[in-house]
Amino acid sequence: MSKIDLSVNIASLKLRNPIMLASGTVGYGNEIAEFVDLNKIGAIVTKSLSLKPRKGNPPQRITETPAGMLNAIGLANVGVEVFLKEKIPFLKQYDVPLICNIAASSVEEYVECTKILTEEETIKAFEINVSCPNVKEGGLQFGNNLSAVGKVTEKVRAVTNKPLIIKLSPNVSYISEFAKVVKDEGGDAVSAINTLVGTAFNIFTRKPKVQNVFAGLSGPAIKPVALAKVLEIHQKVDIPIIGIGGIMNWKDVVEFMIAGASAVQIGTLNFIDPTAPIKIIEELEKYCEQMSITSISELTGSYII
Amino acid sequence: MSKIDLSVNIASLKLRNPIMLASGTVGYGNEIAEFVDLNKIGAIVTKSLSLKPRKGNPPQRITETPAGMLNAIGLANVGVEVFLKEKIPFLKQYDVPLICNIAASSVEEYVECTKILTEEETIKAFEINVSCPNVKEGGLQFGNNLSAVGKVTEKVRAVTNKPLIIKLSPNVSYISEFAKVVKDEGGDAVSAINTLVGTAFNIFTRKPKVQNVFAGLSGPAIKPVALAKVLEIHQKVDIPIIGIGGIMNWKDVVEFMIAGASAVQIGTLNFIDPTAPIKIIEELEKYCEQMSITSISELTGSYII
Amino acid sequence: MLIVNSPVEEIKEIQKDIFLQKIYSPEIARQIKPGQFLNIRVSETVTPLLRRPFSVCDVEGDYIFIMFNIFGEGTKILSHKHKGDTIDILGPLGNGFNISDDFDTAVIVAGGLGAAPFPYLTRLLKDKFEIFSFIGGRSINDVITFNLVNVKTATDDGSLDYFGNVVQLFEENLSSLKNKKLKVFGCGPNAMLRALKDVCISNNINCEVSTECAMACGFGICQGCPIESTEQSDKYLLVCKDGPVFNVKDVII
Amino acid sequence: MLIVNSPVEEIKEIQKDIFLQKIYSPEIARQIKPGQFLNIRVSETVTPLLRRPFSVCDVEGDYIFIMFNIFGEGTKILSHKHKGDTIDILGPLGNGFNISDDFDTAVIVAGGLGAAPFPYLTRLLKDKFEIFSFIGGRSINDVITFNLVNVKTATDDGSLDYFGNVVQLFEENLSSLKNKKLKVFGCGPNAMLRALKDVCISNNINCEVSTECAMACGFGICQGCPIESTEQSDKYLLVCKDGPVFNVKDVII
Ligand SMILES: Cc1cc2nc3c(=O)[nH]c(=O)nc-3n(C[C@H](O)[C@H](O)[C@H](O)COP(=O)(O)OP(=O)(O)OC[C@H]3O[C@@H](n4cnc5c(N)ncnc54)[C@H](O)[C@@H]3O)c2cc1C
Ligand SMILES: Cc1cc2nc3c(=O)[nH]c(=O)nc-3n(C[C@H](O)[C@H](O)[C@H](O)COP(=O)(O)OP(=O)(O)OC[C@H]3O[C@@H](n4cnc5c(N)ncnc54)[C@H](O)[C@@H]3O)c2cc1C
Ligand SMILES: Cc1cc2nc3c(=O)[nH]c(=O)nc-3n(C[C@H](O)[C@H](O)[C@H](O)COP(=O)(O)O)c2cc1C
Ligand SMILES: Cc1cc2nc3c(=O)[nH]c(=O)nc-3n(C[C@H](O)[C@H](O)[C@H](O)COP(=O)(O)O)c2cc1C
Ligand code: FES
Ligand code: FES
């Protein structure tokens, strides 16, 4: 057995390693479980849940861009009720912290969802998605507005004792201002980043390639932006950060941790190589060994500037 | 001779075609002239000029990222005086509209530079860089602040009658608000976008790969973001837009024009293939022919949403 | 579902611009059924980033085949693979054609590269069923009849055989198929599939089609590939997981 | 400065992990001088995005050679090129070594892949000048003496010959070179070049070094490659345009 401690803490949430699976890129865990032993993963974050089921946007929902992809799924999800009845039983079988991601179109809906879900003991923490660029209501309306983010944090905080993570929008000038509000209103951590707003057109039909017109950019293309957002938050606000954006391998994970992340989430990569998260965990251990790092959490914010 | 009209107008500035060379990616024209017949280009934009010469940032100034690059040159430039004395004579030889890009750390400096340069008749327009992420003063301090952008536009407008283009920062939530201010304060056009703020770390030394820590992301990686910014401005504000960001070929140019750009600038691509601008112009003509477009300006904002 | 690195055995241009790639992949060959597909990573770099979906075209022992044309960057890279290069395959994915329904005659209707899944289907059906294949294309070069049997062809421009689209050709031949228990298997552009659906539904013929759509994952985790269901208007089906083969009754194409 | 698409003629591993690529490029071969470099686009896709700079290693008739190890993605792709594949070259770039100064004996001091530019320099000098080559590396596998003459080697770990760095080796041999008109040509990691500069300046020896630095364009338009000048503190020199070869007196390494 190795002597390297890969475990990390996000507020009171203890993860066996820093590798989480990002919301919207692993559904509710059942498909990805064919490739990944969920018992080895740091945590799994559900697809954004809303109070009622959402059909999502009509096709075409995705397109590829240089080293990235655009998506406008439109938060298609089964809703809180079906999730509890049909999806939780599968996830209960695993010993992996389950984090529920919640999306809503009003502060009341965020609160209502959290209230219902917090009763379910399988759920270990909440990630509040205030930053989805692909829905008409909620989404960026909240995510780009300081006082809205403050309000959501405050109100959701009031109805749950579980760790509360706010997933921030990168489509702002100074993301650290948002992290500060989250901290001030009692949030336990922030996730950075959600997708960047982007678009693409078919030059022969002149129509947008994604039906929703505006869509969210993810994948390696956005990694430098995500790293800068993580670094900015780390330099300005004392709050645990979950780094997200374009991670393709263990090196990217180390880079995010150096820039200030306590843990990371893997998104788009799951589509390309669903076995990658496990490989990354193994390789992180090797890196720590090679660099004589006994506890991986030493990496967090260890940049030399 | 072809019957296709490739010319476009940016306010009172008439260009023989929509292909401009972006600031900071062609110096002052002399090196690129070995590869590109400048007489065939729509316009050339100088490296950002400041009142006094600037040494720029220490190395390392650049690094590569997935489908992109980060730079923090720090606005190294010869200054207005040397530019007029040593660089203008070379550019005078060509029949290509010369656009002077100006960067400064105070409103007064912007005004002062413009005042001096506007006397030089070779200079056909100004592009005001309020959005450079790589300098301590000026740069984003201006670019992410609505009233600062308004002020700079207003004051510079007062000292020149030449077309005034403001180059906007993409590191904001709603770029159209900035375009609106520019229009309201008498600006003639906007350029979108400058680079996105990004960073990268060396995972063995834990040092930033670019000495300045934060740097500007350019190249194909940012194209979807740039297109979304152009589209947002086009939908909200009636002002000519110069589209910039990640253009690698003629198809990308068409995509920017469909999204709302009247002309475009080619940046990072000049480093990779300095002959590309000429090839692109030829291929645009073929595309127009194939699509029965008689005047390329028909493309501007011709999206079907 | 497996992820395997399989060596390319051979790649040949079976007709102008149409490539057939033979891949040594015993595990996939053993499991895959006609109509299922593979999601292939064509490059180790991040461009192209996503895998590219391809129908299994045929299976021969330990070898699988895919058929494609050069459409964009991904298929271009694929066409440049040499013997011995490995390709990274995720599959088998999706649901294949159902060949255990009640029918005695299989009718294949394909447009352009929609012919890709049918060599394998033909291989499995040809000993037990009568097969009629109607194959169309825009022009003579787009008609792919490779390894199909009992073929009638149509071209939009009349450059080969029947002048018109392949669904019209099929419809005109319907009368001669009257007394058989038909099952139609279709694949091609959406417009063609819609026309095929109309013909089959109005003639009360059992029909399955293989649909296409942009995909990221190919196995149900991205929600990128919705298709409207006829039964439930409050949610979409997923092309990758619930399809790509659907009975025409079940989906709005 | 040209941009040419030149076919690879041969690629061989001249020693463990060190590749020599022979490229048919008459136009470049005709113009290029030792110490100049090429900026090579290794892929048509956007990853890697930027060109990669390589010193010209040698020239033989219409052929040019580059020498490299697999460092990252770009050099990996380069090492996989087959005979007949073309590569996209921008060059010749920068200023080469000045070989018309007043010297009678050339001293080459190189560390690791810093040996790359010297086969060509040796070829041009060896008939007219005496040459001494001091070549170092971390370990025996890193010492590259390919096509050099009159070589003495050093390794940091003592696994081959002199135990120590190559500048120490050179310094220890200085006394034997006392009565000659020396010119030193250096290339290697910055730390080595700094040490070499110190030795040469304190012994008053004319010395030029080929420097390295991250580059985007390679021909002066991006300002990405600054190097501090000893003469003007208010502006940087550019490695790509003012260098990559500098007299050690002119730059702060
Ligand atoms: C289930 C299924 C089976 C297929 N079988 C075959 C086959 O056997 N032979 C064949 O030649 N092609 C087949 N295709 C289509 C094939 O996947 C595309 O031709 C291929 O993705 C083109 O990639 P490219 O990089 O060359 O083109 P590019 O244009 O560079 O990239 C194609 C991109 O467009 C997206 N895209 C947008 N719309 C569609 C769409 N309707 N279908 C596919 N991708 C789309 C893809 O996700 C991909 O990211 C199939 C598609 C699906 C979904
Ligand atoms: C003038 C000059 C001549 C050179 N000659 C040779 C040669 O003959 N043989 C050889 O093997 N190598 C040479 N190099 C180094 C060579 O360019 C790099 O090894 C190569 O870029 C690695 O590319 P990669 O994609 O394999 O590695 P990656 O690590 O994937 O990419 C290297 C990237 O790092 C950047 N970079 C950062 N620092 C440096 C640096 N100090 N030098 C170069 N790139 C840097 C590059 O711009 C490039 O974008 C030379 C470099 C220069 C500047
Ligand atoms: C197809 C897709 C669907 C997504 N759905 C959600 C979602 O429902 N809720 C959410 O908070 N983030 C969602 N995201 C954002 C990711 O969780 C992640 O923040 C983003 O993709 C950046 O990481 P990556 O570059 O590793 O993919 C989605 C991303 C993709 C690509
Ligand atoms: C090396 C480099 C230097 C740049 N310098 C300037 C500058 O001085 N002034 C400016 O307004 N923009 C500058 N830019 C930004 C470009 O003009 C352009 O807005 C940006 O690179 C996006 O376009 P691209 O993706 O085509 O490169 C620079 C970009 C690069 C890559
Ligand atoms: S392609 Fe991802 S869910 Fe279908
Ligand atoms: S590499 Fe661009 S200026 Fe030197």
Description of the structure:
The complex is a heterotetramer, with two copies of chain A (305 residues) and two copies of chain C (253 residues). Chain A has helices spanning 79-92, 107-117, 140-143, 146-157, 175-184, 223-236, 250-259, 269-272, 276-290; strands spanning 8-10, 13-15, 19-21, 43-45, 62-65, 68-71, 98-102, 123-129, 164-167, 189-192, 196-198, 215-218, 241-244, 263-266. Chain A is α/β, with parallel strands linked by helices and 305 residues long. With 253 residues, chain C is an alpha/beta fold. Chain C has two domains: 2-93, Translation factors (Elongation Factor Tu (Ef-tu), domain 3, Beta Barrel), CATH 2.40.30.10; 105-210, Rossmann fold, CATH 3.40.50. Chain C contains six helices and 17 strands. Chain C has helices at 26-31, 73-79, 118-125, 166-173, 190-202, 239-242; strands at residues 2-15, 18-24, 37-41, 52-55, 58-60, 63-69, 86-93, 105-111, 130-137, 151-155, 162-163, 182-187, 206-210, 226-229, 236-238, 245-247, 251-252. Chain C is globular. In chain C, 51% of the residues are buried. Chains in contact: A-B, A-C, B-D, C-D. The interface between A and B is large, with 51 and 51 residues. The structure holds flavin-adenine dinucleotide (FAD) (2 copies), flavin mononucleotide (2 copies) and FE2/S2 (inorganic) cluster (2 copies). One flavin mononucleotide binds next to loops of chain A.
Outline the fold blueprint.
The complex is a heterotetramer, with two copies of chain A (305 residues) and two copies of chain C (253 residues).
Chain A lengths: L7 E3 L2 E3 L3 E3 L21 E3 L16 E4 L2 E4 L7 H14 L5 E5 L4 H11 L5 E7 L10 H4 L2 H12 L6 E4 L7 H10 L4 E4 L3 E3 L16 E4 L4 H14 L4 E4 L5 H10 L3 E4 L2 H4 L3 H15 L15
Parallel strand pairs in A: 3-4, 3-14, 4-7, 7-8, 8-9, 9-10, 10-13, 13-14
Antiparallel strand pairs in A: 1-2, 5-6, 6-12, 11-12
Helix pairs in contact in A: 2-4, 4-5, 5-6, 6-7, 7-9
Chain C lengths: L1 E14 L2 E7 L1 H6 L5 E5 L10 E4 L2 E3 L2 E7 L3 H7 L6 E8 L11 E7 L6 H8 L4 E8 L13 E5 L6 E2 L2 H8 L8 E6 L2 H13 L3 E5 L15 E4 L6 E3 H4 L2 E3 L3 E2 L1
Parallel strand pairs in C: 8-9, 8-12, 9-10, 10-11, 12-13
Antiparallel strand pairs in C: 1-2, 1-7, 2-6, 3-4, 3-7, 5-6, 13-16, 14-15, 14-17
The site of one FE2/S2 (inorganic) cluster (FES) has 13 residues of chain C, from helix 6.
